[in-house]
From TrEMBL:
Pfam families attached to this UniProt entry: Cupin_2 (PF07883)
InterPro entries: Cupin_2 (IPR013096), RmlC-like_jellyroll (IPR014710), RmlC_Cupin_sf (IPR011051)
Domain of life, source organism: Bacteria
Name of the featured protein: Cupin domain-containing protein
Top-level taxonomy: Bacteria, Bacillati, Actinomycetota, Actinomycetes, Pseudonocardiales
Keywords annotated in UniProt: Signal
SUPFAM superfamilies on file: RmlC-like cupins
Amino acid sequence: MRIVSAVVAALLLFSGVASATPSRGVTGKILAQWTVGDRDYVVREITINPGGSTGWHHHDGTLYALVKKGVLTRTESDCTTTFVNRRGDTLIEQPHQVHIGRNLGTSPMVLEVLYVNPAGAPLSRDEPNPGCSFD
């Protein structure tokens, strides 16, 4: 009975997630993490395979990244603002900025990322496609 209750509770809790756009071809590995005061710091390596994407999402805190390999194409929720970041480029994503990251290239793209989030916040939160014609 506890298992059934837990499943029902999980379905109710996550019922709004169905409209989110899932990532595809993305893997991540946490390299380090620590908390100082009311902030969590997480260093993570993210790989997006050719044709892959992060899905639409936002972060509760600020994200700092370095493109270690390949090309990252990021599009904002207005569907027109696009940034192309190549190997060696750094980027900053501000809190609550809805966006998608895609690898439109033919080889894997690798990012090294530092997340600076409010303590206890997830690394990202899924969002629905804001109406863009891709993904």
